[in-house]
Structures are given as structure tokens and as C-alpha cells.
Amino acid sequence: MKKLIIPLICLFVVFAAAAQDTNEENKKSRKEQREEKRRKIDELIRQEEEEGVLAFNKQSVFGIRLRTNGYGAFYELAKYQSQRVSMTYSIELDETKHNKEDKKFILFGNPYVYGKLNNFYNLKLGIGQQRIIGQKGNKNGVAVFGIYSGGVSVGFLRPYYVEYNNNGVGEIIKYTPEDSVKFVEGPIIGAAGFSKGWNELKLKPGAFAKAAIRFDWGRFNEVVSGLEAGISVEYYSSKIPLMLFQDDKQLFLQGHIAILFGRRK
User: Fold this and answer.
1) CATH topology of domain 52-264
2) Where are the domains positioned within the chain?
């Protein structure tokens, strides 16, 4: 029995020493990993401060834009994938106008657009990528990004109402075959106002794609301040009636310019 106990004790000591060495190696390995991660973070901070390099995990951007056929706003969330590429997720809301719209101003009435049939609003959900084309060079420089995205677009048609002078009495009308003469020949007192037509919305499903160049001159890298210029295309399941005496379209191509503001972290 004693002959067995001594070898067992020796074996236990050997295993205990080996386990201790392994634990020390694991601790050393974890410590090295932490130090390596800290060095990487310090390097990114140094690049941000000295070289203007943008490094972030998440970016939130709000934008207000003017389009060649309307105006709108959007929100975009970007998530870091690599040093130069981020995935983007966006929600956008625009109003699309016909390029032949001509607003008439009335002395004692609301301005109105002659021959306008519908207001057309577009709600879009998109996914895409943001790529860094050029870093800032220094923290007071300008970063340049390339943006491209696509997704679904839901159009909302709201009938356009005007106020018609019916022998001295104001009458609220929209375009119908029955009221076509009144709508076209008048006399029109003015637009009926923003509150009319919301209970008559019609949905128009579609899709969109967008490409843009973005310039960010924010003094601090955690702040987004910039300008975006780009083009987009939208296609809907049926033609969109916007104006009398004009061809209805399913495909809309437009340019835009936007002011951006937001944060990174």
C-alpha cells in the first residue's frame, strides 16, 4: 500500500504543477489579449486625434434634403463592419411634386396649384453600405463617403382639394368628371388646406435605389456635420396621377442635396 501511495503523491504533484503552469499561461494569454486590445484602441484614438481617421461602432444620422422634384427627411443608422465599410439602415419620408406645378397666389385666399390632382408622399425603408473614400487627414479636415442603398417604397396619394367660388359661396372640390369644368375653369378662390383628403389615401407599393457622395467636416469625429449629394430612382406598381394634362409616371428619377447632423460612438 505504501508503495502505491508514494507514486500517487508524486503524480498528484506533477499534475498540480502542470495545472498551475497552464493557469499561469492562460492568465498571461488573457493579459496579452487585453493589452493587445488596449493597444489597438490607443492606436485608433491616436489616429482620430492626429490623423483624422474615423473609427466607430455605430453612427446615427438625421438629414433634411431638397430634391429636384420635392423635399423630405431621413434617419440612418450605420453599424461598423470593417475599417472602411459600414452597413446602413434607413427610413425616409419625401413629398414628390410634378415639375410642371405652378403655384398661383390669391390676394384673399390660400395659394393653390392649377391642375394638381394629388399630393404624393413616399415612405421608404432601405438597407445599404457606407464606404470611406477619403479620411480627414487631420481632425479639422473633410471625410468623404460613398453611400448606396435600396429597399421598398410605399407611396401615399392624397386628393388635392381647392375652394371654388360658386356664386359667392365657397365650395370645396377635388377633381372628378362631374366637377371637371369647375376644377379647370374656376373661379378658384384658393387651396382648401392641409387637412383635406387624409381619409382618402391610396397606397402605391414600389421600390427604390439611391447612390450618393457624403462630405463630413465635423470638427470632432464623434459629431456628424456634413453635406450629401446624390441621385435616386423609384418605381411604383402603377402610374401616379399628379397633374391634369400631363403624362402619369411609374418611374421617378431625381437628384438631391441634403444637410446632415448626428453622432458616432
Assistant:
1) Porin (2.40.160)
2) 52-264
Q: Which cell is 193 given? A: 388646406
The runs of H, that is alpha helices, within 105-196 are 180-185
- 53 phi-psi bin (left φ>0, alpha ψ -120 to 50, beta other): beta
CB 61 within 8 A of CB 76: yes
Among 161, 198, 193, which residue's Cα sits nearest to residue 179?
161
| Cell numbers representing residue 47 in the block | 489616429
Q: For the chain, give me the number of helices (H) and strands (E)?
A: 2, 13
Per-residue pLDDT band for 185 (boundaries 50, 70, 90) equals: confident
Nearest residue to 234 via CA among 256, 212, 247, 250 = 250
Assess contact for 118 and 201: CB atoms under 8 A: no
Query: For 108-219, where are the E strands, in sequence order?
Result: 112-113, 118-134, 143-159, 162-166, 169-173, 188-191, 202-216
CA 28 to CA 22: how far, in whole Å? 10
Q: Please name the residue that has the C-alpha cell 429597399.
A: 151
Contact partners, residue 112, CB within 8 Å, separation at least 6: 103, 104, 106, 162, 188, 190, 191
Please give the Cα distance from 56 to 78 (Å, whole number).
Answer: 10
Q: For 108-135, write each residue's pLDDT tens digit.
A: 778 889 989 999 999 999 999 999 887 7
